[in-house]
Design brief:
The complex is a heterodimer of chains A (about 375) and B (about 300). Chain A has about 375 residues and is of the alpha+beta class. Chain A has helices spanning about 15-20, 55-60, 85, 105-115, 120-130, 145-160, 180-195, 205-210, 230-235, 240-245, 280-285; strands at about 5-10, 30-35, 40-45, 70-75, 75, 90, 165-170, 200-205, 215-220, 225-230, 250-255, 255-260, 260-265, 270, 290, 295-300, 305, 310-315, 320-325, 330-335, 345-350, 355, 360-365. Chain A starts with a strand and ends with a strand.
């Protein structure tokens, strides 16, 4: 296990060899970034497809040599080292198993390659088989297993090594059936709590990221937008992208004019919980936007901004109502059974408003 | 009452007619010849299995069969590993791919008798590049006199002509392996051999089976090239079953024995192909019982 540090890492795909692994359209897959992930944590790299998260993961595992910068494990520069030398385990999107080998031989494979004594191998394999609940399938051929069992094997090949520095996951549950996804994620969480491996989990699914990780790194177009706990990402998105990306539906972001402790949307004034500093005023607040989660938007009979309802989507446990306020579309989440007013007035819960300038947070919610 | 749509028979009729005319009826005439004898005038006598017995006991047939089996064994032993090796060494991306594929495909496009002629000239000691070259180097090489030289020439010619087929089949299997398998192997610290044994070989097994079957059948039935190069000589050194058969049927006009031989020949190919296929597919299924044998 190790603390993983990235120093001024940047990567672009231009050589032919690298192009095969990633996407060629975007010249810089990862823009210059610094990150430090302390030992034993569970981290998630979250972002839409093509945002560079897999590239970053491959840089950490050593499958990819970054164009610039260095990777440090416990303060030791490992940029030039191979994945094997870095002692990394990686689970891929599509389960990789050695098809002609049995489940037990698959798990023994990395240990045998490292020349461990047979007795050690057998005891490690046996304990991992128990951990993953694969004891009864130990002597089956790996290719005869279901896709979720295969994915367990590829996870097991990481767990079997006691000296592993970190376990990396590259969208490991994409091909798994939904009801098994939940189960595997819980097992993963349990394994993390039990063994405290440093785990980095790449996904585009926010539910996976937010339930798995203590800290989530949100990426967009090769840059890190925000690093934080699931709570912070939800309440105080640092960037409008994070606000829109996290949550279902994402945060409402509407242009506004800020005047002291008031935000002006169209002809309506919304009071903020605190006034912006005078330095903001003097610089002239341009391109300011107001961000509010649909969870904190209320529809009432009176008092608020007049709105027109354009759509009502019942998603089961709650109702998403789309309204238009002063020419801007907003989404509000109402609890199931909550009455929807005929002539609704929109009201924002006080203290839940984030203010953005040029997409960056300038005043956070309480 | 259940109605049966007999129109379906009409649909398969052309296929039945085609197969009947091209395969079944000629085969049946061969079967017919193999159990009869004739002294001309279109008069035939029933002889039962006599030709088959005579053929199986004949030294000439057994020698030709042994030569053919040896030839096929040599071809498989050389071409299959060589083909896999070349396929592994071929580039997976870039301009090199098309260059290699064109070079590999070239020998396959040349007609059999042209290949024979090329090598016949190539190996001649008076004007051939190979034959004359070896002679000037002081090597005592003469494929028209020395049995070993004749064999070496024919085997080399077949390797040159057909290894490409094995290469192309294996290569198609290799490029179909997703990159992620190699990445996982790097992370697991797998050696080059382990990557081949546990990733590449299982993935090319099916195309390899086809390659083995094709190469076996073709080499077991080889006729044109040795006929052009050595004509079955020196002596009977390169008289394979097919050459022997033609000599018997066309040269000596022994229709009965030739027909019996044809059928035996056909059954041997069928049997050996079945054995190859079974061994390769069954060994695949049984591999799971052999635990604890890695790299």
């Amino acid at each position: 296990m190790a603390t993983i540090e990235l120093q001024a890492i940047a990567h672009r795909y231009d050589s032919e060899r690298d192009a095969a692994i990633g996407d060629v359209a975007n010249p810089f897959a990862v823009n210059t970034l610094d990150q430090c992930w302390p030992d034993g944590g569970a981290y998630a790299l979250l972002g839409p497809s093509g945002c560079g998260k897999t590239t970053l993961l491959n840089i950490i595992s050593g499958l990819l040599r970054p164009t610039a910068g260095s990777v440090l494990f416990d303060g030791v520069d490992v940029t030039a080292r191979s994945p094997e030398q870095r002692n990394i385990a990686q689970v891929f999107q599509f389960p990789v198993v050695y098809e002609t080998l049995t489940v037990a031989d698959n798990l023994a494979f990395p240990l045998k390659n490292r020349g461990l004594p047979k007795l050690d191998i057998d005891s490690r394999v046996a304990s991992v088989l128990t951990m993953l609940g694969l004891q009864e399938k130990a002597n089956l051929k790996a290719r005869d297993l279901s896709v979720d069992d295969k994915q367990k094997i590829s996870l097991g090949r990481g767990l079997v090594r006691t000296d592993v520095n970190a376990i990396l996951f590259d969208e490991p549950l994409t091909v798994i059936d939904p009801h098994l996804k939940w189960q595997l994620r819980t097992e993963l969480k349990k394994i993390h709590q039990q063994f405290q491996h440093t785990m980095i989990y790449v996904t585009h699914d926010q539910t996976e990221a937010l339930t798995f990780a203590d800290r989530v790194i949100v990426m967009h177009e090769g840059s890190i937008m925000q690093v934080g706990t699931p709570q912070e990402l939800f309440e105080k998105p640092q960037h409008t992208f994070v606000g829109r990306f996290i949550g279902s539906p994402g945060m409402n972001v509407i242009p506004c004019i800020v005047d002291g402790a008031t935000a002006i949307v169209g002809e309506h004034r919304i009071s903020l919980h605190a006034s912006l500093g005078s330095d903001f005023k003097s610089s002239g607040l341009q391109n300011t936007e107001l961000g509010i989660r649909p969870e904190y938007v209320r529809l009432r009979q009176e008092q608020g901004l007049p709105a027109t309802i354009t759509a009502i989507e019942d998603v089961g446990k709650h109702v998403v109502v789309r309204v238009v306020v002063a020419g801007h579309e907003l989404k509000a989440i109402l609890r199931e059974g909550e009455p929807i007013p005929q002539q609704p007035k929109v009201w924002f819960e006080p203290g839940k408003i984030n203010l953005y300038q040029n997409d960056h947070l300038i005043q956070a919610a309480e | 009452m259940k109605t049966v749509n007999n129109k379906a028979w009409l649909m398969v009729l052309p296929a039945i007619l085609l197969v009947g005319l091209s395969a079944i009826i000629p085969l049946m005439t061969v079967v017919n010849y193999s159990v009869q004898d004739t002294f001309g005038n279109n008069e035939f006598f029933w002889v039962g299995t006599e030709w088959f017995q005579e053929m199986l006991h004949s030294q000439r047939f057994q020698n030709a069969l042994q030569r053919t089996l040896l030839f096929s064994t040599l071809i498989l032993v050389i071409e299959i590993p060589l083909g896999i090796g070349i396929a592994l060494a071929m580039p997976k991306r870039g301009i090199g791919v098309s260059v290699c594929l064109v070079l590999m495909a070239l020998p396959l496009l040349i007609p059999w008798n042209v290949v024979g002629t090329i090598w016949q000239v190539f190996a001649r000691i008076d004007i051939g590049l190979l034959g004359h070259g070896l002679a000037s180097l002081g090597v005592d090489y003469n494929y028209t006199q020395n049995s070993f030289d004749a064999w070496a020439t024919i085997v080399l010619m077949d390797v040159w002509h057909w290894t490409s087929l094995v290469v192309l089949l294996c290569y198609s299997g290799l490029v179909a392996i997703p990159e992620v398998y190699y990445q996982a192997a790097r992370i697991d610290g797998a050696s080059r051999w382990a990557v081949f044994r546990y990733i590449q070989l299982p993935k090319i097994k099916r195309v390899l089976l086809i390659a083995v079957l094709l190469r076996f059948m073709d080499s077991f039935m080889i006729y044109t090239e040795p006929f052009v190069v050595t004509g079955g000589g020196p002596g009977n050194a390169t008289t394979f079953l097919s050459i022997d058969l033609v000599q018997m049927a066309v040269g000596q006009f022994d229709l009965g024995p030739a027909a019996a031989m044809s059928l035996i020949y056909f059954l041997i190919i069928l049997l050996l192909c079945w054995v190859f296929y079974t061994v390769m597919t069954v060994s695949d299924q049984n591999a799971s019982s052999n635990r604890g044998r890695i790299g």
